[in-house]
Amino acid sequence: MTRKQAGFTLIELMIVVAIIGILAAIAIPQYQNYVARSEAASALATIRSVQTDAEDIMVRGLEPIVGDVAADAANGDNQRSLGIAADASGAGTISVDSYDVGGVIEIIFTFDDGGVSPQVQGENVTLARTEEGVWSCTTSIDTNFAPGDCAQE
Q1: What DSSP element (H or E) covers 57?
Q2: pLDDT computed for residue 149 by the predictor
Q3: Is 73's pLDDT higher than 50?
Q4: Where exactly are the transmembrane stretches of this chain (predicted)?
Q5: pTM of structure
């Protein structure tokens, strides 16, 4: 009398588990790298979204700022909001630095120290305008994760 095999042997199950473990060991770091690259690209997209507003505000001779501006014309307030809050992104903060009336401005996205990929924590993406009106992007993020059109700081 012959007996039919009723299931998988222990060796077969161990081989399947080993194969899944090898695939996971390869896939998880690649996924983490993908997430870091997407967070960096998202930061650049966030500050690029206010680039046109910044240009318009500066052409009018006003100072672009992040956040709300109290409309107080009596005090001669020349600040205008870029239409974005400093904490608009859960990944970091947005700020304006190095503004001058000559048209030079830096819009900076700084990643938080937590809640984002370790590869971008504490790093920044900067969108800068020169007096000639040329916009450029620089970043402190490692080149493996930085947006493609951003130069290293």
Answers
A1: helix 51-59
A2: 87
A3: no
A4: 6-28
A5: 0.81
